[in-house]
Amino acid sequence: MPVTGTGRISRIIRWIDYRLPFVAQLEHELNEYPTPRNLNYWWNFGSLAGIMLVIMIVSGIVLAMHYTPESTMAFDSVERIMRDVNYGWLMRYIHMNGASMFFVLVYIHIFRGLYYGSYKYPRELLWMLGVVILLLMMATAFMGYVLPWGQMSYWGATVITSLFSAIPVFGQKIVTLLWGGFAVANPTLNRFFSLHYLLPFVIVGVVGLHLVALHQHGSNNPLGIDHKGPQDSIPFHPYYTIKDLFGLTVFLLIFSVVVFFYPNFLGDPQNYIPANPLQTPPDIVPEWYFLPYYAILRSMTFDVLGIPAKLIGVVLMFSSILLLFVLPWLDTSRVRSATFRPIYKKIFWLLVIDVLTLGYVGAHPPAGTIVVVGQLATFYYFFHFLILIPLIGKIERPRPLPTSIGAAVLGPGAAEAAGGE
Amino acid sequence: MRNRVFTLIAASALALAPGLAGPARAADQCTEEVALPHQQWSFEGPLGTYDEATLQRGFQVYKEVCSACHALKHLAYRDLTEIGYSEDQVKGFAAQFQVTDGPNDQGQMFQRPGRPSDPFVPPFPNDQAARVANNGALPPDMSLLVKAREGGPDYVYGIATGFKDAPANCKLGQNMYWNDYFPGHQIAMPPPLTADGQVTYADGTNASIKQMAADVTTFLAWASEPNLNERHRMGAKVILFLLVAAGLFYAAKRRIWAKIH
């Protein structure tokens, strides 16, 4: 829909659009891009995650103006930000808790995709790009956590980078390369800072691709059925702009409660002790968003066929995410939404419980029943994706699908009338 | 170097071999953990604030007792104006300390009285000197103590008030003291608060051990989180603003969507 006004502004916009179709493109995406009319609030989390990415980049750039990535000064420079930089405490608490919030949003976004089958044809690449974003986020968050150079920063970095030593033949060389020496030290901090600044912009790039892929076939929807005609969709603006705005305000409320009233609730007190290479903390625990993977990593307590437990643990941990890349082909059901899949709906919630259990296990010292529970939960995680998902698609009898989104939402008669919207 | 590499390997092994890593849990009273009792703090909860009189009393306890061994390196003397001291009082206090400055135009380092802009002068020039003076133990810097311990203010208060005679069947190490709330119970710090009235409060408050412990804990909470009052005030405004905004956006959303329902 080209800009048609005759005023001066319209003429300028037309001049620009003729050469660089920026406004026209925006018009197209907001007003003409058809969005399913039945998206529920679980569809708010994608745009929320996008906004969170911007918040993280902006607060991060401000922090980087005051932070010193040098091992003897990093901890003190963070404290200086907290005490002497104007509103430095605010920037740092936003950034530090923002990382947690970002994972909350993205995890909900991912589970929404799992529930409503958003990874299925024709959105496989959209889903895979999302998994790439998750991996980049994990790397970024991990390296960011190292920067304050507290005890948990240092020992977390040590434990996680040491994982790569499990790789046969090259393991130790890779670890040395990651460290920039023979232990976690200043060179490690320098390269982590550099990469921590770089990766968010890579994420922005992949998010761009994620959006291009999204707009190719449009959003999935709670019914999981395809768009069949004008009665099924509404323009993104104003319907979803206002809905996203409301959702954003509610999210910001929750975020603000954390930042202003409980800023250290999600953190580990150990990280307010400067890094000390000679003193290991009593428990080395990663941030909460890594706990399920940590539980999977630690679940291997025995060698199998001469393969060391450590290597298997590392492979399992990475596979737990890499598995998501092939999920679109593991799932044999052609019905997307769990609403119409009675068995899948149940095992979806079992998976949620399983992942929460893994998180609980990851947070506790591995002893006694915790070890066994961790092993069972790890087994079930892979069982879900590798056995249940392919099998259930074959044996399940899905409930009948509605003929169209409009028919399901408005009733069969109203759908005709709404066609003219 | 070799040692450090071993520590690394041990740490990775600990992380990766959970079956073997769990330490045997001795349930006897010599090592058993005691739950920290919760105290009421004026600064807890979303609307909590530091009480200025408490902070000043706590500062007095820090100055007269703790500062003999514990540094407060992330604080500068000027920060004391935030707990109600006048600039002149702060100048006077800072001037009691000698600060190494320089080099001067002769290329010499020299001593001068402290200024408000100087960070708190530590009791020992370096960690080694601190250890030598304390039977090998290192008194931790107190600037972040409350944030750096599980239990926060309850822990600091617990340590300050938790000194007792060791139970008869528990053997204390040399130069160690029994503390109910210290992990493992054996602490190298001698009891810092030993008698009621150890500090004579300027405001006439009765200086019982519990009072001094609570006051210094509040002061240390402020030292580790000096912006709490401002943060809570700003938070209340932000929340109020967002509540109104959420209400407006919700109403707008209802109206816009009414057209297509």
Gist of the model:
The complex is a heterodimer of chains A (421) and B (261). With 421 residues, chain A is an all-alpha fold.
Which H/E pattern describes the elements of chain A? HHEHHHHHHHEHHHHHHH
Largest sheet of chain A, in brief, is: 2 strands, antiparallel
Output the radius of gyration of chain A.
24 Å
- Backbone CA Rg of chain B: 24 Å
Beginning-to-end CA distance, first to last residue of chain B: 71 Å
Relative helix content of chain B: 25-40%
Instruction: Based on Cα principal axes, name the global outline of chain B.
Output: globular
Please give the order of strands in the largest beta sheet of chain B: 3-4-5
Helicity range of the residues of chain A? Answer: 55-70%
Q: Return the average pLDDT of chain B rounded to an integer.
A: 90
Enumerate the strands of the largest sheet of chain A in spatial order, edge to edge or round the barrel: 1-2
- Chain-averaged pLDDT of chain A: 93
Shape of chain A: globular
Percent strand of chain A equals under 5%
> Helix segment count of chain A?
16
Largest interface: A-B, 61 and 53 residues
Comma- or semicolon-separated keywords:
heterodimer, A: 421 residues, mainly alpha, two-stranded antiparallel sheet, disordered C terminus, B: 261 residues, 3-stranded antiparallel beta sheet, 5 strands, 40% helix, disordered N terminus
What does this molecule look like?
The complex is a heterodimer of chains A (421) and B (261). With 421 residues, chain A is mostly helical. In chain A, 66% of the residues lie in helices and 1% in strands. Chain A has 16 helices and 2 strands. In chain A, α3 packs antiparallel against α9, α5 crosses α10 and α6 packs antiparallel against α12. The longest helix of chain A is centred in the middle third of the chain and has 32 residues. In chain B, a hairpin with an 8-residue loop joins β1 and β2. Chain B is mostly helical. In chain B, the strands form 2 sheets. Chain B has a 3-stranded antiparallel sheet with strand order 3-4-5. In chain B, strands 1-2 form a two-stranded antiparallel ribbon. Chain B is globular. The longest helix of chain B is centred in the C-terminal third of the chain and has 31 residues. The N terminus of chain B is likely disordered. The chains are: A mainly alpha (421), B mainly alpha (261). Chains A and B meet through α4, α5, α7, α10 and α12 of A and α1, α2 and α8 of B.
